[in-house]
Amino acid sequence: MGTFRVEEAIIYRDRVGAEIDREANLIEKMLTYVETPQYLRKHLFKMDPDLQYAGTLPPLRTPNHPDRQGPSSGLLRQGIVIQSGASSMIEAGFGNLVRIKSKLPIMKRITIRLTKDSPELEGEIVEPSGLTIYWGFRVARGNVSLSEIIRSKKFDLTISTSRKGTDVREVTPNLTQRWKSANRPLMVFGSPNDGVPEILSKSGMNVSDAMDFNVNTIPDQGVETVRTEEALWSSLAVLNVLESK
Q1: In CATH, what number does 2-59+136-242 get?
Q2: How does DSSP assign 112-144, residue by residue?
């Protein structure tokens, strides 16, 4: 998702039951682990059998997941609060803690900019929303259905992906225009068991009424079933091309 500058990954409930909750929790845990900079993982994640092989996952290499580098004024980093008092001490992967001149909750995760690199490290809090570079994605999970997310009206463009959807080539001009003007678009993917139309129908919603676009981003697919992770990559790649048109 980082490749295509996704800002938020939302995990929704497509069915009910203990097994579904366990699977959703695992997905949330894995995505959160991956999006956490490597130097913070030992502080934020305890020993967990679910994460036994998570270390084999490739690093994101997004700007908020930097290679090892020495501290210098102006550098941006994600960090967590290790000590708190009149000032707070932040672990930001430099070897030495960074002092922030404000009291912050212990273990709070923040973004900082270094303002001083000698004789000790000092920094200031930065709001990620104000940055001009891509700063990774958030993971959101609530006990909500897809229909509840759609009805929240938080998004100014909604796109669902489906094999039964309109060939994306047929709606490219209109979709391109809407995509470029959208401030908070939402792209929806189905589950391993059901597609988006089937999931919405369980809540009494019709996909054509609920979504601005219901598109097939892999027309003439050569396999019977496209997995969610495959659909995600292909669909985001299509939108990435539209943005450059």
Answers
A1: 3.40.1280.10
A2: EEEEE-SSS-EEEE--GGG-SS----EEEEEEE
